[in-house]
Amino acid sequence: MQQGQPMIVMSEDSQRVKDKDAQDYNISAARAVAESVKSTLGPKGMDKMLVDSMGSVTITNDGVTILQEMDIDNPTAEMIIEVAETQEDEAGDGTTTAVSIAGELLKNAEDLIEQDIHPTAIIKGFHMASEQAREEINDIATEVDTEDEDLLRSVAETSMTGKGTEVNKEHLAELIVEAIRQVTVEDDEGNNVVDLEFLNIETQTGHSTGESDLLEGGIVDKDPVHDNMPTEAQDADILLLNEPIEVEETDIDTEVSVTDPDQLQQFLDREEKQLQEKVEQIADLGADVVLCQKGIDDLAQHYLAKEGILAVRRAKKSDLEFLSEVVNAAIVSDLGSATAADLGHGDLTRDDEDELFYVEGEDAHGVTLLLRGSTDHVVDELERGVNDALDVVAQTVSDGRVLAGGGAIEVELASRLRDYADSVSGREQLAVEAFADSLELVPRVLAENAGLDSIDTLVDLRAAHDEGDVEAGLNVFTGDIEDTNETGVVEPAHAKEQAVTSAAEAANLVLKIDDIISAGDLSTDKGDDEGGAPGAGGMGGMGGGMGGMM
Ligand SMILES: Nc1ncnc2c1ncn2[C@@H]1O[C@H](COP(=O)(O)OP(=O)(O)OP(=O)(O)O)[C@@H](O)[C@H]1O
Ligand SMILES: [Mg+2]
């Protein structure tokens, strides 16, 4: 090889961004994502309306939903979205908090890099601070009685404040706590285990949210297939069927040519016989009720009605799966090999007004939370809010530790981390301090979103904590500083631990990168950002989705 000639190993289309440029690029992408959800944080946070390329609309306050629905097309931004997704999987709530803290950590890291502090020192400091924060959370958290329903309701209400669930939060909190209680069992060691598999959420439009209800067992939102069928069945043997009760069609296209009417009649007779046999098989199994996921032929409907069997067709797959737990039945996919043991046992009652069936198992295993709202958008957002609340109540029941909300925990953590920073030597100390500052983003944004002065609020909160008031938080409705644990603004400790840890890990992941090598334009959405230097204009991929959001 000749001297002095650079060796080209990358293709012509590929792009490479190095060192400071790479850091700038990554940090600004990550911060843009965090920035986009900040305004939804807390009880006074606003909602976002997201319109996808098909024109369908989602209105939500839920951090992870916003990020998933936003058409983000930037590799770094996607790492931050992963933070929200991990938080959603692990804790169910706190996604906005986690992402906002990650963004703030990166913002503060950027300042440190400006001061010539090497990213590895920052990474180490952030890691130490996050470990320390976990310990402190454990120390600050209050152990609670997991049977204390008032407390569990407060946890649910805190999580639902500021969402579509807000107006009916007392009623919903009652339902949620009761639902969780019903699906909680004690394991051999006496620990509470919440099995959310036995909890089903159904939604219905056309009613007010206040009419939401908790039902024992499951529901089937269908009509009987034939008018002459019974509409109720007590002590019934129930068949869950995943096979059509129709004439079996051949896989290949066939054409039957008939030459005289008798042949045609024979042909029809055979079809009729096939259907009759299927219904007989069902009757022989002893089924009083058939809930079928597939179709039921008109003629078969007639035979079933004659046998006095209550049948429903095109039931939802998820409903059948849940009902198989409720009535303890197997889902049969081949009638021929089904036995009586596959049938479940329970009661079906009809709600004529809502046109649905309630299915109750013998020992009422499983509950259904029936959420109601006026329109689809209302119900969807309601469901997201209720899911968050279910998760936090479930965590509190199994973990038993709670923290004071309204920014109380973040300010206390920040103050303890600053003390801890004094014991850290070297440049890492500055990173630990930056970590503490980043946590205080939460009370600042809570105040900001409530139209309060964020600096004043933070100063007051710090003063209260300096005086040893560990649970001093912000009442966003009055602007007062008060003991939020006492006023019932409480959050599960596990969710906060997770938020702090995943925010730190994501920030560190981004900070560790000093070289971006991409096989093409960095934003995969070509055409709308041609030629822009990635450091400054590389956010092009996010431009469309985010431009209107901030
Ligand atoms: N009544 C209240 N007064 C003060 N702060 C509150 C109150 N209710 C909730 N909060 C605070 O609001 C924050 C939670 O806000 P929000 O639910 O919007 O975000 P998140 O839980 O981080 O994310 P998401 O719910 O979108 O997954 C917590 O810090 C909580 O302490
Ligand atoms: Mg929340």
UniProtKB/TrEMBL annotation:
PROSITE patterns (UniProt xref): TCP1_1, TCP1_2, TCP1_3
Domain of life per record: Archaea
The keyword ATP-binding appears for this protein: yes
Compositional bias annotation for Gly residues: 532-550
Segments of this protein annotated with the region Disordered: 521-550
Keyword hit for ATP-binding: yes
GO CC annotations, alphabetized: cytoplasm; protein-containing complex
One Gene Ontology molecular-function label: ATP hydrolysis activity
Keywords attached to this entry: ATP-binding, Chaperone, Nucleotide-binding
Family: Belongs to the TCP-1 chaperonin family.
Name of the molecule in the record: Thermosome
Organism: Natrialba aegyptia DSM 13077
